[in-house]
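Lab notebook: predicted structure, single chain.

Context: the supervisor wants predicted structures on file for every construct in the current expression panel, including those that have not yet been purified. This is the next one on the list. No modifications to the sequence; it matches the entry in the shared construct table.
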Amino acid sequence: MRMKFLGIGAAYNPSWGSNSAFFMAGKQLYLMDCGESVFGCMADRPELAECEAVNILITHLHSDHIGSLGSFISYCRHVLGKPVLVASPDHALAVILKLTGIEEEEYEFRTEFAEAFPGGIRVKPLEVVHALHMRCFGYYLSDGNETVFYSGDANVMPEEVLNRLKTGEVAHVYQEATFKEKQHPSHCSLKKLCESVPEELRARVTCMHFGEDFQAEARKCGFDVAQVYEPRAAKEAWDVKELRPVREACAV
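Prediction complete. Output recorded below exactly as produced.
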């Protein structure tokens, strides 16, 4: 259940890539959010070539979290021929996709989470506080062996999540963090995170979604820090059997 990050940047830090992570559950690829830079980062990943299907969990509708979603769905379906499941409690996501030309038949849209997801992954959304006029969610993710929590953008680690981290019900938390304190914060400051998370638990919390470089400060406080997963060179990825004919067709 450990996440591999494609980008670790906040919306105004594009050079670090849109904050997004993925993991594999057998032959099922799971992607957390799909911001502006994510399609470009994911397209040459060998995991995308090797998976049987793609499952995308969306935390909220800001562009740095859904900016390349439509293109990625279309690419997976029409170029790679892989089925795509998109999940969010927010029905508005399907409306946005339709407005950008992604029809309902191109993907499966799930807003209910009672049943297990492909690969046996249990997904449970938890509404978090981030934007004043937009619903935002974090996700509990369980593979039957352990449970992790991915916060999305949240201005505090939810008390429920913190309590489950303390009891061991949650093995690891991926929590967005910022360095600056603001009067009306929409993000969780490092100071606030230090005040809420006991020192002995901080190694099980990974900070992500950086608006600026304060990784050293986060590490000094005892937190883990998200790192971009080292991609294979594009040429090596293109040599994957499933992608080679795609690249040749695109070159025509």
